[in-house]
Design brief:
heterotrimer; A alpha/beta (383); B mainly beta (131); C alpha/beta (345); A: 383 residues; Peroxisomal Thiolase, Chain A, domain 1; ten-stranded mixed sheet; 19% strand; C: 345 residues; alpha/beta; nine-stranded mixed sheet; three-stranded mixed sheet; 33% helix; 25% strand
């Protein structure tokens, strides 16, 4: 990529249930902390992802309301509603803005799921998947994940217990993440003996929806250096789409949009898979994470569950996966998720103690319906 | 008024109507509006074979509101005799009877209703083959 | 009533739900010592009289190869319509892909609405107004928890594609008749969930009087006697009534056996005699003559005579009723009340 966009600040609230705060106030809290981290620059554009705030009747056009609260006038505000990649597309819009202009852009996402019944949230998610297929079949998103998991187990002869190891790793990695919804390690036995959501998947195979807001401040590399800010470089990105409804696909276990998006992202960054130190994987369900990792090409088809079971992908290994807990343990604030994934990678790449220099952020809607890949690279530390 | 959308969908939902590509023969369920994904060919509506086999399934324990009365229920991933793959609820089958690979056939059932006074939505479900 | 032009059954099909509940299971909840039948069917949570009618129709159409675009009438007899106002027939027309240029109506005459539908369709065919027509008897009948009816009120149905005899039929309708009188043995008022009945009054002055009068009149009018029939089917609200009425009219147990299903499946109301007829056709041979006498509370009885033809061998229902009997699964009272929607009363 040649437009040299960099991330110079991030801000998050802990994913969870905010009974005393509304969607705008958690958005404001995360946005202000991102701005503060970037030295409170003047903002030229503001892109906000939120998958469900309109659908759930919480607050439509939520970006406008956050912008007004943070007191910034006369700049572009856009609210983007594209499921799990909403805040990822907000980020991409920020890149596009900075491709032709200079200045600072605030991007991220906000979601509020605790003000509605869990069934209302899952039904709003279902509407984003194919309405006809889901509604008339009684299928839920978790049910679809379960069908994929059973097919995966049958086709590759994978033992049920191995599917959930990725969730156990997520919980292990979230223990020291102050922004994580669940900061408790779990054993595989605990995870497998938990209540079933959609057979064979238990609550530990299903990432929990949560309230959340995460924002990032972007600018150009020259500007960051000029203003003396620490930064992480955006090295590349890719976006691709798979067939919907999912049963139209030749093979529902093949995440080809993920493969394409990641391939394009690596290509635009001029690197290969072997260069990746960190992968932030969109594991909305354990099986989605496994299939995505196989789509990315880190594992052969049918082998990712075994790799997790062998103890791979822990922090310090190459690549390390979901170093702050992934969607399962950090939580799944739907439209804000990608902004959390990016922020977590930024933390790792800015850290002096971590030996990480390149990160892949993988984000999706549904089951590879849309896939977004972003490559971040350690940038100037003492500009 | 979801009843209107459901009414518009009724023929393909009642009769297992899919799209068939006139050029390459590809099948789609539910029917597509435009052209064939694989070859760009023209699509026509066709009644799909009513028999198939179960490729995968799940038992839903956390159901959407309109299906809560039915929980736990089974949703199958089914391949029809012509190769068309679709998702549909299974009925007339006990949880310990369902097996990947089992033969199933289409049947016509109530899917859900909008309360005691609301519209009844009918459609296709699948059951173990009765011969 | 003898059609001037030959009319008969072109194809047929019967359907019963998969679930049964044993009478002992109901009795254990309500503390009853003796019960009228062994078990009864009940609909799954996703079945109603319309989906049962659909299954029976589909079997009738597919087994016979009847031309769907030539069906000129579809009449559904039921006392458990899914809607009080909104016809079931229109859903069947679109679900089965029948021609939309079709007469369609829902018939209600307690348990004999289905045979009434056969007579109406026969008349349209015999007059030449239509060439093919469908008559259905289907019910998911109701019984108030703990009431006598809860032991027998069951679910099931059968469908008959009728046509001119000249098209080739599996059984010709020789003649039928009908006898009715104002008799308050059983009723359900508009808007009420469960029917009421007058206990033992449903027997002698209702069931027995109407069936016996109807059949005797039929015999006199057309010169039949019980010996002329290979099989007979009587309305079957329990195990005892059809056996006793058969005996009173001079029929043997062998004649009624193939069509006597109530001990296992219960009283399928509008479906009862028609499911019995379908089960009898499943085993009958060319040349067999079958008597059918329905009964509907309120009250009336229709009597019919059918003669089976050579075509029966190639157009038997596939699957036959036996296949549905073989897949029955017994459920307990709690599943039964849940599936029947009684928990939301």
């Amino acid at each position: 990529m040649d437009n040299n966009v960099v991330v110079v600040g991030y801000g998050m609230v802990r994913v969870g249930e905010y009974w005393y705060k509304d969607i705008v106030s958690i958005g404001v809290e995360a946005a202000e902390s991102a701005l503060e981290a970037a030295g409170n620059p003047d903002i030229d554009a503001f892109y906000v992802g939120s998958a469900l705030s309109s659908a759930l009747g919480i607050q439509g056009n939520v970006g406008l309301h956050i912008a007004d609260e943070i007191g910034l006038d006369d700049f572009i505000v856009e609210t983007i509603s594209s499921g799990g990649v909403s805040s990822g597309l907000a980020f991409i819009n920020g890149l596009h803005y900075l491709a032709s202009r200079h200045g600072y852009v605030l991007v991220g996402g906000v979601e509020k799921t605790s003000d509605n019944l869990p069934t209302e949230v899952s039904e709003a998610v279902l509407v984003d998947l194919d309405r006809r297929v889901m509604k008339y079949s009684g299928l839920t998103e978790a049910g679809l994940a379960a069908i994929l998991a059973r097919l995966y187990m049958e086709r590759y002869g994978v033992d049920r217990s191995k599917i959930t190891q990725i969730s156990v790793l997520d919980h292990e990695n979230a223990v020291d993440n102050p922004y994580a919804m669940f900061r408790k390690a779990v054993t595989l036995d605990m995870a497998l003996s938990s209540p079933i959501v959609a057979d064979p998947l238990t609550i530990f195979d299903v990432s929990p929806y949560g309230d959340g807001a995460a924002f990032l401040v972007l600018t150009t590399k020259d500007r960051a250096i000029e203003d003396g800010l620490r930064y992480v470089e955006v090295a590349g990105y890719g976006f691709a789409r798979n067939r919907v409804p999912i049963n139209y696909r030749e093979d529902i276990l093949s995440f080809r949009a993920t493969a394409k998006a990641v391939g394009d992202a690596l290509g635009s960054a001029g690197i290969s898979l072997d260069d990746l130190d960190i992968i932030e994987l969109f594991d909305s369900y354990s099986i989605s994470g496994l299939l995505a990792l196989e789509g990315i090409g880190v594992c052969e088809s049918g082998s990712s569950a075994n790799e997790f079971s062998r103890g791979m992908f822990r922090r310090g290994m190459r690549p390390s996966i979901n170093t702050f807990g992934g969607l399962k343990a950090r939580g799944y604030p739907i439209g804000a998720t990608t902004a959390y994934q990016i922020s977590e990678a930024v933390i790792r790449l800015l850290s002096d103690s971590d030996d990480y220099s390149t990160a892949l952020i993988h984000s999706m809607t549904g089951f590879d319906d849309e896939a977004l890949a972003i490559i971040l690279r350690r940038g100037g530390l003492n500009a | 008024m979801p009843e209107i959308t459901e009414w518009r969908d009724r023929l393909w939902r009642y009769r297992l109507v899919g799209s068939k590509c006139l050029s390459c023969g590809a099948r789609y369920y539910p029917p597509r509006n435009s052209s064939c994904i694989k070859c760009g060919g023209e699509l026509v509506d066709v009644e799909l074979p009513r028999r198939g086999k179960l490729l995968s399934y799940t038992v839903i324990y956390q159901a959407p509101g309109i299906y809560r009365f039915a929980s736990p229920y089974i949703v199958g991933f089914i391949e029809l005799e012509d190769g068309t793959r679709l998702f549909a609820m299974l009925t007339d089958v006990e949880l310990d009877e369902v097996k990947v690979g089992m033969e199933v056939e289409a049947t016509f059932r109530k899917l859900y209703t909008y309360g005691d006074s609301g519209h009844i939505v009918y459609g296709i479900k699948f059951r173990p083959l009765v011969t | 009533m003898k059609p001037v032009n030959g009319v008969g059954i072109f194809g047929y099909g019967a359907y019963i739900p998969r679930y049964i509940i044993e009478n002992s299971s109901i009795a254990s909840v309500w503390g009853k010592l003796s019960t009228p039948i062994k078990s009864k069917t009940f609909p799954s949570y996703d079945e109603d009289s319309l989906t049962i009618a659909y299954e029976a129709c589909r079997i009738a159409l597919e087994s016979s190869g009847a031309p769907r675009d030539k069906i000129g009438a579809i009449y559904i007899g039921s006392e458990s319509k899914p809607y009080a106002v909104k016809p079931s027939g229109t859903v069947l027309v679109d679900a089965l892909g029948l021609s939309r240029n079709i007469l369609s109506a829902d018939f209600e005459f307690a348990c004999k609405a289905g045979t009434e539908a056969i007579q109406a369709v026969s008349g349209l065919i015999a007059s030449g107004m239509i060439e093919f027509g469908i008559a259905i008897g289907t019910d998911t009948s109701q019984g108030r928890p703990g009431d006598e009816l809860e032991y027998t009120a069951a679910a099931g149905g059968a469908a008959f594609v009728l046509s001119r005899a000249s098209n080739g039929v599996v059984a010709e309708i020789e003649a039928s008749n009908s006898y009715v009188s104002d008799t308050p043995d059983f009723w359900r008022r508009s808007g009420e969930k469960y029917p009421r009945h007058l206990y033992r009054f449903t027997g002698e002055p209702a069931y027995f009087h109407h069936i016996i009068t109807s059949v005797k009149h039929f015999f006199e009018e057309y010169g039949y006697s019980p010996r002329d029939f290979d099989y007979a089917i009587f309305h079957q609200p329990n195990s005892k009534f059809p056996q006793r009425v058969a005996k009173m009219l001079g029929f043997t147990m062998d004649q009624i056996r193939p069509g006597l299903l109530s001990p296992i499946i219960g009283n399928t109301y509008s479906g009862a005699t028609l499911v019995g007829l379908a089960a009898t056709l499943d085993v009958s041979k060319p040349g067999d003559r079958i008597l059918l006498a329905s009964f509907g509370s309120g009250a009336g009885s229709d009597a019919f005579s059918f003669v089976v033809t050579d075509l029966i061998e190639e157009r038997r229902a596939k699957p036959p009723l036996k296949s549905f009997l073989e897949r029955l699964v017994t459920k307990d009272y709690s599943t039964y009340v849940r599936y029947r929607g009684k928990l939301w009363v």
